[in-house]
Design goal:
Layout: H1 4-28, E1 35-42, E2 46-47, H2 58-67, H3 72-76, E3 85-89, H4 96-106, E4 114-118, H5 124-138, E5 143-151, H6 165-168, H7 180-190, H8 195-214, E6 225-230, E7 237-242, H9 254-257, E8 281-291, H10 292-298, E9 304-313, H11 323-334, E10 343-346, H12 351-360, H13 374-377, H14 384-399, E11 403-410, E12 414-422
Parallel strand pairs: 3-4, 3-5, 10-11
Antiparallel strand pairs: 1-8, 1-9, 2-8, 5-8, 6-7, 9-12, 11-12
Helix pairs in contact: 2-4, 5-14, 7-12, 8-12
Pfam families: Thiolase_C, Thiolase_N
Domain Thiolase N-terminal: 35-293
Active site: 122, 379, 409
Length: 424
């Protein structure tokens, strides 16, 4: 016969387990006011300056994604007159607000459809989703589209501008003058992430992406893009259809990556290379959002649910470890543990931050980026936050699982994370 203390301990354990189960069940419950996703698609991700989208400006990329050839309008079969707002996550394009609104109109949406731009560096796509979702929750709109898009071929990142002495002489604010490559080296040095750890992390990303591409796992994520490409030698312009990611290097191993020289020898420990950092990339992704009740009224297929997102800050010099703060923060808001999450999509800005975050959070590596990540197929800055959601929902369907967390580090020292549920 157990003692009173043992019985109390047993009851406490049962309650703890019940509470955890209840929190996940609450997340999976279907309510009329849920903000749901009825379509989540992306373009192929192609190498900047080299790939199939290298001559496609942001406005053309947006128009293509929003209207042409099996994309948002045709694939969703939604009356475009119902779309009230389109929020475009973008980091680099000059005149972003002009481009976003103009592209929405050129894509055939009515003059009543508004447009805005969200820019929080690498989390811009997720911020766009959060912005549209928050408007729906507040009752400001019924139907909206969140987009993440970047043409890194046609728009360069000039880095931090010149700022006032109040900023440039401030011990923390001045860290924002450090280039992203330097922050990767800061993470590697401060947290003892070795070159071997980085190359092994990167190799797994390539290997997973290669397996996913060969197995056709990306097929239901990607909508082809009709565009034009210019031959750099002859100047001849050709009409093409881009329908696959082109940055995945087949046969990549940690050993082969170990032969690549340091990209930033000026910053110690000089372990970041062109092989263990994210690729410079062009691409876009779109997510169609509305309340569950509205989706049911319109006969829209519900593929997922937006549960929530959060952001946090940290020292800019180690901005890469942002997910190690943002993920626990979002989980705490829903009373969940990492064990209750089926998939983690963590943006691989650099292998230093990826290896650190997986280690720090003690994540099951099988759950992290099952299809590979930005090291393998690219990081179009403004697009990534939305692209991760598209990938996560597709992978949840494939595995017949339910809950995903997406997260990324954010330039200037931030991290963002969101929770999504598959309903397919």
């Amino acid at each position: 016969m157990s003692s009173p203390q043992q019985r109390l301990s047993s009851i406490a354990g049962q309650l703890a387990g019940s509470s955890a189960t209840t929190n996940r069940q609450k997340l999976l419950a279907k309510n009329a006011d849920d903000v749901v996703i009825t379509l989540a698609v992306r373009t192929p991700l192609t190498k900047a300056k080299k790939g199939g989208l290298k001559d496609t400006n942001l406005d053309s990329l947006l128009v293509s994604l929003l209207t042409h050839y099996q994309t948002v309008r045709e694939k969703s079969k939604l009356d475009p007159n119902l779309v009230e707002d389109v929020c475009v996550g973008n980091c680099l394009c000059p005149g972003q607000a002009y481009v976003a609104r103009s592209a929405v109109l050129a894509a055939g949406y009515p003059v009543t459809a508004a447009a805005s731009v969200a820019n929080r560096f690498c989390s811009s796509g997720l911020l766009a989703i959060q912005n549209i979702a928050n408007q729906i929750i507040a009752g400001s709109i019924d139907v909206g589209i969140a987009v993440g898009a970047e043409s890194m071929s046609t728009n360069a990142d000039g880095g931090a501008p010149e700022m006032s002495p109040e900023v440039s002489e401030h011990p923390i604010a001045s860290q924002n003058k450090q280039p992203m490559g330097q922050t990767s080296e800061n993470v590697a040095g401060q947290f003892s992430i070795t070159r071997q750890m980085m190359d092994e992390f990167a190799a797994r990303s390539y290997q997973k992406a290669e397996h996913a591409q060969k197995s056709g796992w990306f097929n239901d994520e990607i909508v082809p893009v009709k565009t034009q490409i210019k031959d750099p030698k002859t100047g001849e312009v050709k009409n093409i259809i881009v329908d696959r990611d082109d940055g995945i290097r087949y046969g990549t191993t940690a050993e082969s990556l170990g032969k690549i020289r340091a990209a930033f020898p000026q910053w110690k420990p000089s372990q970041t290379t062109g092989g263990n950092a994210s690729q410079i990339t062009d691409g876009a992704a779109a997510v169609l959002l509305m309340k569950r009740s509205r989706a049911q009224e319109l006969g829209q297929p519900i593929v997922g649910k937006f549960c929530g997102a959060t952001v946090t800050g940290l020292e800019p010099r180690i901005m890469g470890i942002g997910p190690s703060y943002a993920i626990p923060k979002i989980l705490s808001k829903f009373g969940l543990t990492t064990n209750e999450i089926d998939i983690f999509e963590i943006n691989e800005a650099f292998a230093s931050m990826g290896a650190y975050c997986v280690q720090k959070l003690e994540l099951d590596e099988a759950k992290v980026n099952p299809r590979g990540g930005a090291i393998a197929f690219g990081h179009p800055l403004g697009a990534t936050g939305a692209r991760q959601v598209v990938t996560a929902l597709s992978e949840l369907r494939r595995q017949n699982k339910r809950v995903a967390v997406t997260s990324m580090c954010v330039g200037t020292g931030m991290g963002m994370a969101g929770i999504f549920v598959s309903e397919h």
